[in-house]
Amino acid sequence: xxxxxxxxxxxxxxxxQGGRLVAVGDGEAPQRRVIAAPFVxxxxxxxxxxxxxxxxxxxxxxxxEEGLLFYQPVDLRGExxxxxxxxxxxxxxxxxxxxxxxxxxxxxxxxxxxxxxxPFCWRCDTPLLYYAKPSWYIRTTQVKERLLSGNDEIGWxxxxxxxxxxxxxxxxxIDWALSRERYWGTPLPLWRCGSCEHVECxxxxxxxxxxxxxxxxxxxxxDLHRPFVDAxxxxxxxxxxxxxxxxxxxxxxxxxGAMPYAQWHYPFE
Length: 269
Ligand SMILES: [Zn+2]
Ligand SMILES: [Zn+2]
Known about the structure:
Blueprint lengths: L13 E4 L2 E4 L33 H10 L2 E2 L20 H14 L32 E2 L5 H9 L7 H4 L1 H7 L4 E2 L1 E2 L9 E4 L5 E3 L3 H7 L3 H6 L13 E2 L6 E4 L3 E2 L1 H11 L7
Antiparallel strand pairs: 1-2, 1-3, 4-5, 6-11, 7-8, 7-10, 9-10
The chain binds zinc ion (2 copies).
């Protein structure tokens, strides 16, 4: 039995199915179970760890493998859901209240402070949360062999980088999480139709001007970065509906990686 049942707070449980998250059906009873995992050791702590697939990469992966439940009782401000008894509170401020609640229900074994490393925002020192949310990826794993054989042909200086830092990185390559949520940046060149959901990847400035609902505005646009480019709407080629740009920008490494090509204005000249 769970100490807290988020579905009582209006949090709908999801579960993994074929690598994707789907809603748990009405008649389907949420299940909790104990599983074995290599990232838990007997030499640290109790040897038992709570898995929360919405709040950590290991947790998410094991959730996907084992088909575990996925609960998201925290919003993007890091606050507990409004329906919970701790609703609207930042999670760290809710911690002592959660402990009080467990104590009152005689479910608390011990309360203590343990010092450990934790990520904080480098600008404002706010404690950060690992938070599972949808993102855009480039499936680099699909071209892994080409990347490795390409690396073999490169004359690296110093040479140890070839099979060392860079070769090792390519050998353990995972799909590139490409999108970032920022006010300013190189835009993800994707527009989605508001009527039929069709997504279009715009390949050039000429294409953007061609597809724009307001061609004059598209022609007048001199700065293609977000947020300026967001003003440009496109005509959907599938249904003639209005397409708006998806708000994400690109990982700045994309700009760095494109530099050798971009300096020659490839592939246009
Ligand atoms: Zn901050
Ligand atoms: Zn459409």
